[in-house]
Request: fold
Amino acid sequence: MRYLALALFAEGASDHEFLPRLLLRLTTEISASISTEPVEIAEQFIRASVSSRIGPQTRPERVEALFGSALEAIDLLFIHADGQNDSNAAFDERVLPCCRHLRDRFPEIPFGCVGVVPVRETEAWAIADVDAVTRALGTRKSAQELGLPQSARSAERSPDPKAVLRNAQRIALGGRRHVRAPTSAILAVLGETVALGVLRELPAFRDFEGRLRGALEELWRAA
Reply:
């Protein structure tokens, strides 16, 4: 039996609703494909965000302050950065320095450090699967009626995917008076239901999945 403990450093509260559920699903799928023995993955992530109040450190120092004391118990640390329309630059400038800093500071600890970098924002991945979005919203309205993108690639090109999801939720609610779930709850549902096959249409997601597979394979070799 192999055990994996996961941790996530993300840029905002909404990312902590969507990403852990998505990352757990993908890590489970990849682990099963490369392991010759059963794999048990802790469902509870060790979590922290950019906004955590721990002083004026640089981003790598902040990640160390948040996770350094727990690093011996972490197998995979996911570091999220919104791409802001240049996911490669975001990875190089906001993910790699953190991974390198931790490896320099804790060379004796074997752990995987994996960048999670959508082209713009995490919500673009959340709205990529329109069938999952309409189910999460509990509506029979079409994607077009909800103002949702017609494909995963168009979701990724959306300049404000957060606003797209909020608007779809507003339209789904219509004139009914009962209270719907907050957007954070919708994101939690989408983290569990968005189709991985749809996300694999996006180059940024495929890049992330490749990094995750590589990190897991390295952990297996080191065991």
About this structure: The chain has a mean pLDDT of 91.
